[in-house]
Amino acid sequence: MKSDRWTRRAVLFLGALTVLLSGCTSYVTTQVTAFSDWSGNDASRTYAFIRSAAQQNSLEQSTYELFVANALATRSFRQVEADQAHYLVGLSYGTRSETISVAEPVFYSSPWPGPYWGRPFDPWGPYGAFPPTYVNQTYPVFAHSLGIRITDRATGREVYNVMARNSGDEPSLVRAMPYLVRSALADFPLGNGAVRTVKLPVDPNAGVSNEAAGSEAPASPASGATVVQ
User: Fold this and answer.
1) Is there a smaller number of Cβ atoms within 10 Å at the N or the C end of the chain?
2) Cβ atoms within 10 A of the Cβ of 166, count?
3) What is the rounded distance in angstroms from the CA atom of residue 99 to the CA atom of residue 95?
4) Is 216 left (phi over 0), alpha (psi -120 to 50) or beta?
5) All domains of the chain, ordered by start, with CATH?
């Protein structure tokens, strides 16, 4: 029965390897929804951040504002003092945790001795395994979101409001934030009521993918976005 033990180990190893490979991804996928009444031009793209009462004196808020400021700068926006700004930019963000249940196959070894494996009357093939049974496994999922709201300072009129959402097994919002920012401002300004999916390549120095834990330092991803309509 020694060969039976080795076969069992090989099947378990291959199953584990398949799970690991299928869990890896090279992209972060983000859903983006935008509402727009944008009619600005490059000359008027001065702005300042505004904060809610809860966001005052927040280092987390300052960090996210820096991410957004870097992305806005690539779109001809210039940050100035609030009393000189044409636009005011407000941020909202958060993380929600959920649990999902997935049915996964579990394989058991064949009771027949080794010499009979692979014979025509063995309906389960050369590995001598029964058809798998399925066991429900639960996994945590974290949904991250970022909202960017731009208003005209003089009139208070909302001119742009975009929401970006992604989810995965990474609990840290700060690691997800660079991808949320890049996705939210991809192809700015979007049309009113635009809904799209944005795929960004994983940067090993800039957070994590939706499905696999990544590196340590959050930074704006350098590579470009792929927009899936």
Assistant:
1) C
2) 24
3) 13
4) alpha
5) 26-102+138-228 (3.30.160)
Condensed to tens digits (0 to 9), the pLDDT of residues 116-143 reads 444 444 455 555 556 778 878 888 889 9
Q: What is the model's pTM?
A: 0.69
* % of the chain exceeding 70 in pLDDT: 68
Task: Count how many Cα atoms sit within 13 Å of the Cα of residue 16 in the half-sphere of its side chain.
Answer: 6
